[in-house]
Amino acid sequence: MNGTNNPPRALAASAAVAAAPQHHVWDATTTAQRNTILTLSTTAFTLMFAVWLMFGVLGIPIRKEFGLTEVQFGWLTAIAILNGSIWRLLFGLWTDRYGGRLVMTLLVGATALPAFLVSRVTSFNELMVYAFLVGMAGNAFSVGIAWNSAWFPRQRQGFALGVFGAGNVGASVTKFIGPTLIALVPAAGFLTGKIPGGWRFVPFLYGVLLIFMAAAIWFMTPAHDHKPGAGRALGELLRPLRQIRVWRFSLYYVVVFGAYVALSVWLPKYYVDVFGMPLQKAALLTALFIFPASLLRPLGGWLADKFGARRIMYWVFGTMLLALLVLSAPQGHIVLYVPEKIHAGGQIETMRFVMGPVLFTFLVFIVGCGMGIGKAAVYKYIPEYFPRDVGAVGGLVGLLGALGGFFLPPLFAYTFKATGIPQTTFFILFLITIASFVWLHWVVYRMLRQATPHLRDQFERAR
Question: How many folded domains does the chain comprise?
Answer without folding.
Answer: 1
